[in-house]
């Protein structure tokens, strides 16, 4: 199906996954047009426009003449902490923004296929006996971010049902890799290790809750899942995008430290603990494997090595 496409819209195109996805789609010979936060002026190798997706009219004026054949909706406030601290901003972007986008797309004569990037945070705090969670697990989010993504999913269901917009929902589990912002846990550790290596920081990693357990996968595997789902999935499908490899934050941190070859102290600090963290969440990816033949391929060790190399290059080490 991919060969007949040529115009792809990616919202959140300047973000970590957005950039990787744009590159992968361009390698397939497709034209990528991005939407990014108008407060940013990112240096991107494709055309992208600063549009506030909360602004219905501006968004519609951009989309109507564009007539994309496929849309990846990645734009979101994706920091759980930022969403807790500013719920109205979170809902403005993640909920109203999704509503505005789907409304504009539903008015096009030729309706594009849409992939909505939801999150495993919609599941909330599921009893470990009922994990790994599959797509039929009832979502009960415990933080504002998870709630905003669940509302985004409901908006998707509405536009499929009432307007015939072909939408696929992906519930991504935690992913990382080279290029992710230093405010996320593993990039934060990698960038700190590089500073320690340079002698620019003391050999201590100050961490929050190290016992939190998550599936961690590589963002490059996530991009492949998004493209595979957008290519082949039946509209109305929901897929977990997960490695099924559940590790504690501590295991991930120790792996990075080991790869760096440094001797550092790992200090857990109560001031960095968050009450809205799900203690353990692991997902079942058998549906996407069975339906679409996707599974995570990049090893965690490879991801961590690449993450450290990225920060070394960035810091000139």
Which SSEs are present, and which pair or pack?
Layout: E1 7-11, H1 16-27, E2 31-36, E3 47-50, H2 56-66, E4 70-73, H3 80-85, H4 87-106, E5 113-119, H5 144-163, E6 167-172, E7 175-176, H6 185-198, E8 204-207, E9 213-215, E10 217-218, H7 219-232, E11 238-241, E12 246-248, H8 249-260, E13 265-268, E14 280-281, H9 286-292, H10 300-315
Parallel strand pairs: 1-2, 1-4, 2-3, 4-5, 5-6, 6-11, 7-10, 8-13, 9-14
Antiparallel strand pairs: 9-12
Q: What would the keywords be for this entry?
A:
14 strands, UDP-galactose 4-epimerase, domain 1, alpha/beta, Rossmann fold, single chain, 317 residues, 10 helices, three-stranded mixed beta sheet, 18% strand, seven-stranded parallel beta sheet
Describe the 3D structure.
By secondary structure, the chain is of the alpha/beta class. The protein has two domains: 2-175 and 218-241, Rossmann fold (3-Layer(aba) Sandwich); 178-214 and 245-281 and 298-315, UDP-galactose 4-epimerase, domain 1 (Alpha-Beta Complex). 42% of the residues lie in helices and 18% in strands. The strands form four sheets. The protein has a seven-stranded parallel sheet, with helices on both faces. It has a three-stranded mixed sheet with strand order 12-9-14. The longest helix has 20 residues, at 87-106. The protein is globular. 44% of the residues are buried. The mean pLDDT is 95.
């Amino acid at each position: 199906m991919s060969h007949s496409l040529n115009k792809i819209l990616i919202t959140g195109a300047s973000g970590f996954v957005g950039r990787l996805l744009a590159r992968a789609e361009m390698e397939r010979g497709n034209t990528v047009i991005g939407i990014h936060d108008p407060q940013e002026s990112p240096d991107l190798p494709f055309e992208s426009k600063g549009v506030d997706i909360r602004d219905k009219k501006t968004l519609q004026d951009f989309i109507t003449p564009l007539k994309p054949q496929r849309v990846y909706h990645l734009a979101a406030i994706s920091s759980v902490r930022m969403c807790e601290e500013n719920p109205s901003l979170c809902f403005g972007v993640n909920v109203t923004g999704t509503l505005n986008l789907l409304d504009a797309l539903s008015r096009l004569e030729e309706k594009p296929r849409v992939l909505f990037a939801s999150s495993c945070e919609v599941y909330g705090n599921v009893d470990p006996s009922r994990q790994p969670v599959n797509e039929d697990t009832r979502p009960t989010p415990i933080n504002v971010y998870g709630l905003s993504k669940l509302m985004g999913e409901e908006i998707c269901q509405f536009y499929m049902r009432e307007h015939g917009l072909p939408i696929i929902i992906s519930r991504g589990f935690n992913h990382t890799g080279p290029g992710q912002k230093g405010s996320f846990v593993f990039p934060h550790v990698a960038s700190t290790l590089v500073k320690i290596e340079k002698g620019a920081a003391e050999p201590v990693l100050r961490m929050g809750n190290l016992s939190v357990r998550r599936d961690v996968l590589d963002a490059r595997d996530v991009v492949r899942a998004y493209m595979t789902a957008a290519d082949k999935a039946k509209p109305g499908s929901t897929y977990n995008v997960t490695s099924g490899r559940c590790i504690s934050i501590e295991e991930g941190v120790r792996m990075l430290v080991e790869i760096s070859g440094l001797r550092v102290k790992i200090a857990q600090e109560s001031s960095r603990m968050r009450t809205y963290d799900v203690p353990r969440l692991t997902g079942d990816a058998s549906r996407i494997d069975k339906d679409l033949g996707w599974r995570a391929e990049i090893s965690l060790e490879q991801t961590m090595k690449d993450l450290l190399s990225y920060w070394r290059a960035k810091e000139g080490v």
